[in-house]
Amino acid sequence: MKSELELRGVQQRFHARDVPGGYLTAVDDVSFKLAAAPPQIVSLVGQSGSGKSTIARNVLGLQKPTAGTVLYGGKDIFKLNRAEYDEYRRDVQPVFQDPYAIFNPFYRVDRALWKAVKKFDLASTRAAGLELIEESLRAVRLEPENVLGRYPHQLSGGQRQRIMLARVHMLRPSFIIADEPVSMLDAQVRKHFLDILLDFQREHGMTTLFITHDLSTVYYLGGEVMVITKGQLVERGPVSTVMHQPTHPYTKLLLDSIPQPDPDQRWTTRITPDELDHLDTPTEATQPETPIL
Ligand SMILES: Nc1ncnc2c1ncn2[C@@H]1O[C@H](COP(=O)(O)OP(=O)(O)OP(=O)(O)O)[C@@H](O)[C@H]1O
Ligand SMILES: [Mg+2]
């Protein structure tokens, strides 16, 4: 199932009454490729409202771009035949910010894993299915007896997020599209999560598009980074190069805005509204419509 994901000239406009012209361009002529082999981690970094989640939704087929194409294995994802679409749905897996929102609170978390086993026909017997679920939970450093049989609210945010990763582990996709997956986790749990993504890359050959506004996670993951501002990609390259020799003024601004943890080196400069305009937080309606598991 090794393949390639490509955005070619993707544009996403939304109707917006308060904007001159009546629409805003959330994604503006964005093109990039993600290769399944060799597996890579590519971070997409940019401020709030820059179009990151919209790109994730385009890539996942949740939102059809107003112009341009999203290609999987060289084919437009909105024109795949049934068999190709099924393969794409398995091979490109989402991980979202708030795992609580995608679990059905009335069902034990086991159900999300069993649904994956059934939907993708991963095991022929119940015993084999359970074995697979337990193996995947251990792969994300969860003890099956500590999580199976529990309801979503009985788990921590970090545990819920790792159950989503266990689901990914079972499906072995070529691509993970992770939209701010660690934003709600504390530093230690966050590191744990990032380490699992790195394991997935090394051990199972998965490529991740990692969406974040947090440059410290980009540093930690390494690999490549793409910088987006106002719907446009302005820079792409290895993390160390982009971080140490940024070429675009926006990347420099982004780097300058990281608070220094050194108490002798206080963060004194203020970012003016002119520098970072429209820092609006998207409303709930702009968040990806995630399937309830
Ligand atoms: N369905 C929609 N209808 C109207 N406007 C939208 C819709 N989805 C997104 N937008 C707008 O498009 C722009 C980009 O939003 P997007 O959610 O992609 O940003 P983001 O980079 O993910 O931000 P954040 O870091 O806050 O998650 C924003 O101005 C947002 O308000
Ligand atoms: Mg977002």
UniProtKB/TrEMBL annotation:
Residues 264-293 are annotated as: Disordered. Keywords: ATP-binding, Nucleotide-binding, Transport. CDD domains: ABC_NikE_OppD_transporters. InterPro entries: AAA+_ATPase (IPR003593), ABC_transporter-like_ATP-bd (IPR003439), Oligopep_ABC_C (IPR013563), P-loop_NTPase (IPR027417). SUPFAM superfamilies: P-loop containing nucleoside triphosphate hydrolases. It holds the Pfam family oligo_HPY. It comes from Kribbella hippodromi. Residues 283-293 have a biased composition (Polar residues). Residues 5-255 form the ABC transporter domain. Residues 264-281 have a biased composition (Basic and acidic residues). GO terms for molecular function: ATP binding. This is ABC transporter ATP-binding protein. It comes from the Bacteria.
